[in-house]
Amino acid sequence: MTTRTAITLADLAKIAGVSVATVSRSLAGNTVIAEATRTRIVALAQEHGFQVNQAARNLRLKRTGAIGVVLPLGHEAEQHLSDPFFMSLLGPLADAIADRGHDLLLSRVIPNDDRWLDAIVDGGRVDGLIVIGQSNQIEVIERVARRYRPMIVWGAGTPGRAQLTVGTDNVAGGRMAAEHLLAQGRTRLAFFGNTDVPEFAARYDGFEQALRQAGSGKATLLPVHLTSESSYSAIEDYLGGHPSPDGIVAASDVIAMSALRALAVHGKRVPQDVSVVGYDDVLLATHTTPPLTTVRQDVARGAKLMVDMLFRRMEGGEVQSVAMQPELILRGSA
Description:
Elements: H1 9-16, H2 20-27, H3 35-47, H4 54-61, E1 66-72, H5 84-99, E2 103-109, H6 116-121, E3 128-132, H7 138-145, E4 151-154, E5 164-168, H8 170-183, E6 188-192, H9 198-214, E7 220-224, H10 231-241, E8 247-250, H11 253-265, E9 275-280, E10 293-296, H12 299-314, E11 322-324, E12 327-329
Parallel strand pairs: 1-2, 1-3, 3-4, 4-5, 5-11, 6-7, 6-8, 8-9, 9-10
Antiparallel strand pairs: 10-12
């Protein structure tokens, strides 16, 4: 028996018993077509040796076949892509984008003016954009979001803003971290994190809410705003010149790990003398000494949501911002 080779979309459509448009959309991964139909047509295309001329298709559709992923580092220029949180998010993002038949174009941006995002979206190199973190660039992102639809932001959602966001309910996360320490009987709490970052500011708001609810006489607030690779030396200096808190909420696991190191230098036992709670639940959080109690963000789910939302917007659909619920992961540090 001779297997027929499909030369054109029309040939493949005839074999599949569907329209050319259905074949085209199925091979492009368009979710308008039922998954069973897409799977069947892709299998038929493989069986008959049919390959889409992607370059010609992209040119015809005025698409690039690439999704931009950009990390703006306005507040902390020395951060790198090797940051544990960035790495934990980039892997699932890359997989989800590849599953849609697109390439990932990654950019680490240190803004030097307020047009950096305009240059990316107007450059014609990507079909859509995912922005990882708002940094201190939230107004720049907001301005561009009002004119450029295919853009999703990992960050803090704010009512009334145009930018579509995916992230954790950061206020709830900060609150549950502080409530956990208060329930342990800790009375001298400190928050370590740079509140110029919208997500960190929201976590600090939740932290403060827990303290207010507990009553001002029950806990001492020692807010310290630290971030990135300089966090260890800054925390170490702080501990050298101030009475030690007995409970620390860190705005990220990286900051929490720096706190563990600095506390050890000052002879403070964790959790006997000081309890420490991080935020993110990066892979390294299970390997610290002691293992880090932290507020988990489900970054794998968040990555899939961002890609799904972006492609729905690229196809003209309507989507809403998503705030996932955080989860307190109890380990040895608190």
